[in-house]
Every structure is written in structure tokens, then in C-alpha cells.
């Protein structure tokens, strides 16, 4: 199965800007970006970000405001500050070079088991399996025979054991691509999947979780999910838009956060500003609470 997946990847790999890189810093940046952001969008931002911060030392010297500006379009902005903190630690503790040891990687701020393992495999050729949501789905189905076959600890052990001695970084990308393009959450494309002949879930017809149901007086009916709130009414939208206002302001200048802001009234805006300040994503003016800017230090 491993050989078939690697052959499929060699022939069909998605072409993403960061795929060709062997620079550990560039790989760490790409993995920090790829968490919670679509790979294609992250790849675009990656080129721009590395042009501004080609080394850990360059990022370590930058202000939070500069880093947040360069992070534009990626969302989940706390990751930008965590990456800057990691860069500062790389300079302080590792002479400016990304460490190759898994424990040292995982001690960097914002680097968890997934990112640490991905960098160890991709940049340093270590035989460790990085488990993201795509890899989790592929291994649960193909090896475990159903979507939630393994506990997190078991899954990590399966992922580590799956890594070949040759090309561990390529294997990491191959599994992620398989999950993203063929082994999708719904309606996996088993008919064209290279893992099909060995995949336990495909053989048993157990690729999908049984649908949640509820019962009423007249019998069992399919559960109807609550309709999601429109995105513009969410606090996540509001936080993101406030940061956009600050990014658009001149460097160092204060910008006014108007209220109401879209569908959000003044108390909701106040909550969002406070939470952004608490996360270190903005600095508030001491005298005028609706003036803010990206943090300079
Ligand atoms: S055969 Fe189907 S379920 Fe199995 S890994 Fe491929 S796409 Fe996923």
C-alpha cells in the first residue's frame, strides 16, 4: 500500500510552492501556515512571508505589527505571534537554526506534535509520522477499517510505523494529499484511490460514520443539524475585520474602530477589542478606548 501511495503521489502530487523547499526555516513557516488554512492559500502567503522574513533571525527582529501585516489573509492570527515567539527562541537557544531534534522542536512556542513531526520528517528526514486531520482520516480508514478506529495514542503509533526509511518527507506529503484529494470526509473516491486494494474500510464498506439520529414519538428520524449563523454575525468575523482596519492603517498610527461595526453593536465590539488586546494582537490607546493599533513591541 505504501509503494502504491508513493507512486500515485509521484505522478499526481499537488504542485504547491513550498513542496520543493529543503530549508528547515521555510518548512517550519509553511507548516505553521498550513494549520487551519487551505494549503493552496497558505502556499501563496508563504512566498510573500519568506521574502519579508527569510530567516528566523529576521522574524525575531520584526515587531508584532510587521508580522501581523505579513500574515494578512491567513486568519487565526495568534499563529503569527506564536511563529515570531518560535523565531525568538530559535535565535536565543539554537543559534538561529531550526533544531532537528523532535523534542527541541516541540519545545518551541506554538509547535505542537503535528508541526514538530512534520518539520522533523520534511526538513530532517526523521522517521516520524505527522498526523493532521487528513492523515487521521486515511489511517483510520485504511489501516483501522473505520473512521474512528484508533485512539490518538494508537493513531500516532500507526503513523510513526507507517513512515518508510526512504523519503519520509515525501510520505508525509503523500498521506496528506491522499486525505485532501481522494480520502475525503464524505464520499471518498475509493474507486481511483491507490490504497484501495489494501484499505480495510473500503473492503468492509465502513468508510463513513453512521449518521447521527434521534428518535421521536413516531420512530427514528435523521438528526437535522442546526443551521449555522451567517459568518458576518460571528465574533471571529468581527475580530478579523478589526485587525484588517489596523493593518490598513499607516505603520504605528492609531486607527478608530467604529461602532456599530457591521451587525455588531458597541458592547460586542468592546468584547472583541478586549479579547484581541488580551491575545496580544492589538494595542489600545490609553485615553480613547476606540483607538487601537497593531502592537509595536
Ligand atoms: S480506498 Fe477509500 S477509504 Fe480507503 S484510503 Fe482510499 S479513499 Fe480512503
Notes on the protein architecture:
The chain is mainly alpha-helical. 51% of the residues lie in helices and 5% in strands. The strands form two sheets. Strands 3-5-4 form a three-stranded antiparallel sheet. It has a two-stranded antiparallel ribbon with strand order 1-2. Strand 1 and strand 2 (219-222) form a beta hairpin. It is globular, with a radius of gyration of 22 Å. It starts with a helix and ends with a strand. 35% of the residues are buried. Iron/sulfur cluster binds at residues 138, 141-142, 182-183, 188-190, 193, 195-196, 199, 201-202, 207.
**Overall morphology:** globular
CATH level-4 homologous superfamily of the largest domain = Hypothetical protein, domain 2
Distance between the termini: 50 Å
Over the alpha carbons, how many angstroms does the gyration radius reach?
Answer: 22 Å
Q: Can you count the beta strands?
A: 5
Q: Spatial order of the strands in the main sheet?
A: 3-5-4
Topology record:
Layout: H1 2-12, H2 24-34, H3 39-52, H4 56-61, H5 64-70, H6 78-94, H7 102-106, H8 113-124, H9 133-144, H10 152-162, H11 168-181, H12 200-204, E1 213-216, E2 219-222, H13 235-248, E3 255-256, H14 266-278, E4 283-284, E5 291-293
Antiparallel strand pairs: 1-2, 3-5, 4-5
The structure holds iron/sulfur cluster (SF4).
Amino acid at each position: 500500500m505504501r509503494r502504491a501511495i508513493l507512486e500515485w503521489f509521484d505522478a499526481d502530487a499537488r504542485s504547491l510552492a513550498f513542496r520543493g523547499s529543503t530549508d528547515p526555516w521555510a518548512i517550519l513557516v509553511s507548516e505553521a501556515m498550513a494549520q487551519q488554512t487551505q494549503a493552496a492559500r497558505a502556499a501563496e502567503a508563504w512566498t510573500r512571508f519568506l521574502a519579508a522574513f527569510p530567516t528566523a533571525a529576521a522574524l525575531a527582529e520584526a515587531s508584532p505589527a510587521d508580522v501581523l501585516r505579513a500574515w494578512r489573509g491567513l486568519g487565526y492570527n495568534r499563529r503569527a505571534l506564536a511563529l515570531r515567539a518560535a523565531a525568538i527562541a530559535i535565535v536565543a537557544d539554537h543559534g538561529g537554526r531550526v533544531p532537528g531534534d523532535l523534542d527541541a522542536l516541540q519545545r518551541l512556542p506554538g509547535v505542537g506534535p503535528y508541526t514538530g513531526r512534520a518539520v522533523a520528517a520534511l526538513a530532517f528526514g526523521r522517521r516520524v509520522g505527522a498526523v493532521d486531520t487528513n492523515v487521521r482520516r486515511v489511517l483510520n480508514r485504511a489501516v483501522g477499517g473505520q473512521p474512528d478506529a484508533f485512539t490518538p495514542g494508537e493513531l500516532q503509533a500507526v503513523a510513526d510505523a507507517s513512515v518508510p526509511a526512504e523519503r519520509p518527507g515525501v510520505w508525509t506529503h503523500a498521506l496528506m494529499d491522499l486525505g485532501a484529494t481522494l480520502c475525503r470526509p464524505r464520499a471518498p473516491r475509493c474507486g481511483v484511490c491507490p490504497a484501495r486494494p489494501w484499505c480495510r474500510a473500503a473492503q468492509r464498506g465502513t468508510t463513513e460514520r453512521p449518521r447521527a439520529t434521534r428518535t421521536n414519538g413516531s420512530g427514528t428520524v435523521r438528526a437535522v443539524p442546526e443551521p449555522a449563523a451567517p459568518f458576518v454575525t460571528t465574533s471571529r468575523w468581527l475580530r478579523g475585520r478589526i485587525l484588517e482596519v489596523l493593518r490598513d492603517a499607516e505603520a504605528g498610527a492609531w486607527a478608530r474602530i467604529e461602532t456599530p461595526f457591521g451587525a455588531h453593536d458597541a458592547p460586542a465590539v468592546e468584547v472583541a477589542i478586549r479579547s484581541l488586546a488580551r491575545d496580544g494582537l492589538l494595542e489600545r490607546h490609553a485615553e480613547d478606548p476606540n483607538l487601537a493599533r497593531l502592537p509595536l513591541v
